[in-house]
Amino acid sequence: METVSENRAFGGVQGVYKHHSHSCHCDMTFGLFLPEEARDGPVPLLWYLSGLTCTHENAMVKAGAQQWAAEQGIAIVFPDTSPRGEGVADDEAYDLGQGAGFYVNATQKPWAPHFNMWDYIAEDLPSFLQEEFPIDMSRQSICGHSMGGHGALTLAMALPGRFRSVSAFAPIANPTAAEWGRKQLRAYLGDDEAAWAAHDSSVLMRDKGFDGPLLIDVGSDDQFIDLLRPEALAGAITERRQPATFRLQKGYDHSYFFVSTFMEDHVAFHAEALYAD
Amino acid sequence: METVSENRAFGGVQGVYKHHSHSCHCDMTFGLFLPEEARDGPVPLLWYLSGLTCTHENAMVKAGAQQWAAEQGIAIVFPDTSPRGEGVADDEAYDLGQGAGFYVNATQKPWAPHFNMWDYIAEDLPSFLQEEFPIDMSRQSICGHSMGGHGALTLAMALPGRFRSVSAFAPIANPTAAEWGRKQLRAYLGDDEAAWAAHDSSVLMRDKGFDGPLLIDVGSDDQFIDLLRPEALAGAITERRQPATFRLQKGYDHSYFFVSTFMEDHVAFHAEALYAD
Asked: Has residue B224 got a pLDDT over 90?
């Protein structure tokens, strides 16, 4: 592990670290905020999965999450959104390839050897965090923004018992039916749409649901709302009678100004689940 | 005026605007957060002056100030740190020219025609804000970071009655005696050091002081502390018996992680002065 940087923040430490990912077959960089309490023993962990074009850094500097994590005594990890570096495939489009891993394991060329973000988030990075940092892996929750909201929702539903609560800011909620989704699922997983369903939170919500609390915020003026299709997820939540809070926030758009405005609510929501029992 | 962007944030609006500056003889861009209360009438104003290399954008996205301004019902303006654009002089160094205006009116070539950041902050931008936005100009306070802390302190002391309170994060506190200062003051104001004293907050503190409350935070692990010379300002404050709170924050550095950690305190400090009487 290489320590890229460590800055004191809100009584804790905002670190940036680089490690070798066995899933992605390359070095990966992530941010980790550890609150002051981590000096005395393991603390709960909140995952924050970022959206298209982001690295580990965007939310770390713009979402204003650390202050609330410090207040609650929980750690937050900010993974990158794709493999990167020499020999890693890419595409000219902002929404495919590097910065756009979509939290799946790619089976198609040229993505297959490195683009295994599902395994990276589900297996590789958790193992590494458990070994290297004072984190209580029995207390994990997950959230994300846009493509990261998609990742948070699909991982939470596919890994029952892993995460105590899940939330999303403006998630890509129905990728099998929108251009933010169909393009990437086809590129990474191939033409057989049956393989896509495991990566659509609206489909998963209908089929499985989530055994825990769920919080979704979407801005009513989100400029990408037609690509996100929150109505599909809202419909699935309602049909399933999934315990959830789904909020349309008047006048807000897709930006980090929207995310940071409601971050306090999301961290408090997860803290309640993380400290239950 | 050109509206570059407007995003809803914390119940208010984070705008970015471009206007023609009479002082700097070029177009200037600034950020302005207006809280929800501004829809009903004029609100108090907090100035945030940024440091070397920054534009209007850095603090706007990284300092986490809007949430506290929203809570207090005050506006925050984020000016740029220098003139920019075609025909505006620059230097290869990060600490001279564009991004490094140092809040002075340059008298020397090649800076003299455009680099009038003192007048821009003291006269030009206030007039513009008063004309265009619902701001109560009888209620203003000022803060800043690093070079912006220098600007906030010198403007506050040089313009008695203008600002009700002043604060700084890791200010360049004694620029006539440090390499962050001597280089720029010589370039902008010439070799006669007598002209520099009006832009040294430690000198101004000895000579005039500030008629209001003052708050200073400096990280004990600030990597630039030898260039900032906070000890000179602390000495001057003490000798003058200036009412002030001066804090060395253990383990913090010069970054926005430091600034954002203590932003809540600074905004609350200014709000108390802005709402007095």
From this structure: yes
Q: Chain A to chain B, count of Cβ pairs less than 8 Å apart?
A: 61
Domain annotation for chain A: domains and CATH numbers: 2-274 (3.40.50.1820)
Torsion angles phi and psi, residue B177, rounded to 5: -120, 15
Residues of A with CB under 8 A from a CB of B: 7-11, 14, 61-62, 64, 66-67, 219, 221, 251-253, 255-258, 260-261, 264
pLDDT at residue A57 is higher than 90 = yes
pLDDT at B277: 83
8 A C-beta contact, residue A50 and residue A144 = yes
pLDDT digits (tens, 9 = 90+) for B25-59: 999 999 999 999 999 999 999 999 999 999 999 99
> pTM for this structure?
0.93
Interface ipTM: 0.88
Q: Residue type at A228?
A: L
Residue A277 reports pLDDT greater than 90? no
Is A146 known to be catalytic? yes
How far off is chain B from A8, nearest CA to CA, in Å? 5
Mean pLDDT of A141-148: 98
Q: Calculate how close chain B gets to A7, using CA atoms only, in Å.
A: 7
